[in-house]
Specification:
A 6-stranded mixed sheet has the order 6-7-8-3-9-10, with helices on both faces. Strands 2-1-4-5 form a 4-stranded antiparallel sheet, covered by helices on one side. It is globular and about 55 Å long. The protein is α/β, with parallel strands linked by helices. 37% of the residues lie in helices and 26% in strands. The chain has 9 helices and 10 strands.
Length: 244
């Protein structure tokens, strides 16, 4: 029996002035799947994920998320979808003036995810426990290492219990050991929360550890797809080079 399709993208196009970034992208993400997307910098990988949640408006195509055509949603309907899709930005995007606790409470208050303060505090503690940083709850972002900031940002993404997580370069700027820990954490999160994920990355260690399947993007389209083992042994040198 085929797994439920939680994201379907068909013939997606996006240009910025005369720069054609997405040229007919097709993508399907199944429930429980971790899908990696690789490609050179600046070719549109992040543009694709931002189109999925309409942080960027595509020029043409179809996007279906959890059974909803997001391109036909009004703002209220779109906000309901966004509650179910966590987005881990490349820089982590923590608020420097807020403690870890306050950073995690912020999306709860903004969305009124729960009403009671005690329930909100339990969610914060549960999310921090999932990423192994409950003891950092009262620290400020300036007191955290790069790897800790990534974990806290992931805990904040988990706070609304999303069904889908979009990871934008989750291991960039981290040393090899910390990168491996974050990649293992992505797997743990999938197991604990039954999430489906799209993982944009240049990190071959990350895709080897954390993904079930990988798509390679070139010139605005996907040119290859398969498992890490399949693509790393591709007969095309241009595909193998991504895994060197």
């Amino acid at each position: 029996m085929e797994q439920e399709k939680v994201i379907i993208v068909k013939d997606l196009y996006k240009s910025f002035l005369d720069k054609h970034v997405l040229r007919g992208i097709n993508l399907t993400l199944h429930r429980g799947e971790n899908l990696g997307i690789m490609g050179k910098s600046g070719i549109g990988k992040s543009v694709l994920t931002k189109c999925i949640v309409r942080l960027i408006e595509p020029d043409a195509g179809e996007i279906n998320v959890l059974g909803t055509n997001v391109l036909r949603c009004n703002e209220a309907e779109l906000n309901e979808i966004r509650k179910k899709v966590g987005y881990l930005f490349q820089g982590g995007a923590l608020y420097d003036s807020m403690s870890v606790r306050e950073n995690l409470l912020f999306p709860i208050r903004r969305t009124q995810f729960v009403d009671k303060k005690r329930e909100a505090e339990k969610l914060v503690e549960s999310s921090l426990r999932s990423v192994g940083l409950l003891d950092a709850i009262d620290k400020m972002p300036s007191e955290l290492s790069g790897g800790m900031k990534k974990r806290i940002a992931l805990a904040r993404t988990l706070i609304l219990r999303p069904e889908i997580i979009l990871y934008d370069e989750p291991t960039t700027g981290l040393d090899a050991v910390t990168s491996g820990e974050i990649s293992e954490l992505i797997v743990k999160i999938r197991e604990e929360y039954n999430t489906a994920s799209i993982i944009i990355t240049h990190d071959t260690k990350c895709v080897k550890i954390a993904t079930d399947n990988i798509k390679i993007m070139q010139d605005g389209v996907f040119v290859a797809e398969g498992t890490y083992e399949e693509l790393s042994r591709s007969s095309e040198k241009g595909i193998r080079d991504y895994f060197m």
